[in-house]
Amino acid sequence: MTFPYTRYAYERAEKGEYTSIYGDKLTKIYKYTKDDENLFESDVPETTRILVDMYTDSDESTHEVTTFTLDIEVEMETGLPDIKEAKNEITAIGFHDTKTKEYVVLVMDKAGNMQKKQTDKALVIPFTTESELLLTFLDMYQDISPDIITGWNIDFFDMPYLWNRMSRLLGEDQANRLSPIGESFFSPYRQKFFFAGVSCLDYMQLYKNYNFGELPNYRLDTVGKIELDKGKIEYQGNLDELFNTDVDKFVEYNMVDVELVVELDKKLQFIDLCRGICHAGHVPYEDFVYSSKYLEGALLTYLKRRELVAPNKPADRREKMKAMHESGAEKFIGAYVKDPIVGKYDWVYDLDLTSLYPMIIITLNISPEAKFAKILNENWDMAKFISKKYTDNIQLEFNEDGSTATLTAEKFRMFLRDEPYTIASNGVLYRKDHQGCIPGILSLWFDKRVKYKDLMKKYGKAGDDEQYRFYKKRQHVQKILLNSLYGVLGLPAFRMYDVDNAEAVTTTGRAVIQSTAEMCNIKYNKELYSPEKIVIADENGVEQEYGMTRILDIKRNGETLKVMARDLVEGDDII
Description:
Radius of gyration: 30 Å
Shape: globular
Helix content: 40-55%
CATH class of the largest domain: Alpha Beta
Structural class: alpha+beta
Number of helices: 17
CATH topology of the largest domain: Nucleotidyltransferase, domain 5
CATH superfamily of the largest domain: Ribonuclease H-like superfamily/Ribonuclease H
Largest sheet: 7 strands, mixed
C-alpha cells in the first residue's frame, strides 16, 4: 500500500487553530527544523506520526496476522560462522507458518540420496545445491507472505546470517526478497536487520521482556524444559557429525527448534501481547522493547483524540541520556524497600495496594502541564509538615515563570487547604482545576483493565476459553501500560520527562507504604492480636502498655533497631 504523506509540526500563532497541553495557540507548519525546541511535535518519528494519524480512533489490530517461525543450521567444519562474512554453508532451514499450519524442513543432500517426503510432523525437501535450497525457500516464503517472522535469537543470528549468505551467493536483489517491497537494511543503532513490510520479533527477546523471572540462561533448551517440559533433540558429538552420520535425526533437530518456539507462543502468547501493546502505542512491533516509544505513541494518540498537541522532547535529551549511561547513576529516587526485621513471628499478613503508582499520579494529578510549584527547602519533610512539627518558612519556586515566594508553614498549610492544589512527598505542587494528560490516560487504562478483568472472569466462569484468553490478554496489556508509565517520567528520552514528577511518584509511594504499614501494625498488634501486654518505661521513665508483638523503635548499643516488645532486653531505650 502506498499513500501520500507530508511531515508537519506546530508553532505558536496568536490566532492558531490548535492548542498545546499548556494552552498555547498553535498553527500547523510543513517547513521546519526537526529539533527546534520552540516547536511542538516536530520530532515525532515518521512511523509513529503516520500510525497515530491513520489509526487515531483505534487501538486494535485491523486484521489477523500470519506468523512465520524459522530456524537455520550452518556448517561449522570450516570454523565458527562470521555473521557478516557468511562464508559457512547453510545446511538446513526449518519453518512453520500460521497460514498453512505446516512444518517444512529444507535440507542439503549433496549426494542426492534423500527423497522428498512427508513425515508425521514435517514436509522434508532435499537439495543438492545450497543456491537451489535458498531460492526455493524464498519462493515458499513469498507464497506464504508473512506479517511477522519469529524464532529463537533470530535478531542476532538467523536473519542477519540468512540475508548476508543470500546476498553472497545470490545477490542483494534476491536477499531483499525477504522484504515484501524489496527493501532491507541493517540498523547500527539497534544492531539488527529490518525488512520493510514484515516485522521481526525475536522470541528470545519477547521472552526476556515479558517473563518476569530470572533464569540461569536463555538457551532454547533451558526455556523449553521450564515452560513445556520439552527440550532440544539430544545427540552425540557435534551438529556437523550428526548431519553427516544421521541426516534424519539432523532434520528432526532442526524441526524441533522451530516446534519449540511455536509451542512456546501457543502457551505464552507473547506475540499477541506485543501486538496489543504496540497497537495501543501506535508504533511498529519491533518497538516492543522500548517502553518510552510505545508510551509516547499512546500519549500522542490520546492527545490527538482530545485535540491537544504535545511539546517536543527536551533539547538536551541525548546529552542527559549519555551522561546517565556513563555514570551508571540511578535516574531518580526509587521505590521503597523495607528492611527485614529478623525474628520468629507468630503470624504475618500481606497487603497489596492496587496500582499504587498509577493511583498516586491520578490522585495528585502529576503531569507536566499540571505542575504548579516546587518547595526549595533542602530540609523539607512531608511527615513533619503533616504532624505540624515542621516550622520553617516555605520557599516556593513557581513552574510557569521561575519566580519565587516565601510563606510561613502555617500560611502554606492554609494555602493548601483553601486552594485547588495537591502536594507530593517531595514538595512538588500540582493544579487540580483540570486533569493532566498523564492522569487522564492512566484513568482510561485503569477503567479498561477493570472492564477486561470482569469480562475475563465472566467468560472463564462460562467456560468460553476463547473469549477468556482474549480478555486475559487485553487486561494484561493494560496492566503493562499502567505500570510502565511512571518509570519513563524520569527518562530524558521521553517526551514528558521531568525528574520532579518521577520523584513525586516514588517518594509519595514510599510515604504511602510506610504509613500504611505503620497504621496496620498498630491496629493488628495493639488492638486485634496481642491479648498479652507488657509495661515498658521509656528513657524518660514514662511507662506505657504495649502488646507483646508490637514493633518498637529502640536504641541498643548505639544502634537504632526495630524489635518486637517481647524481644526487648535490659538496656534497650524506646525511641
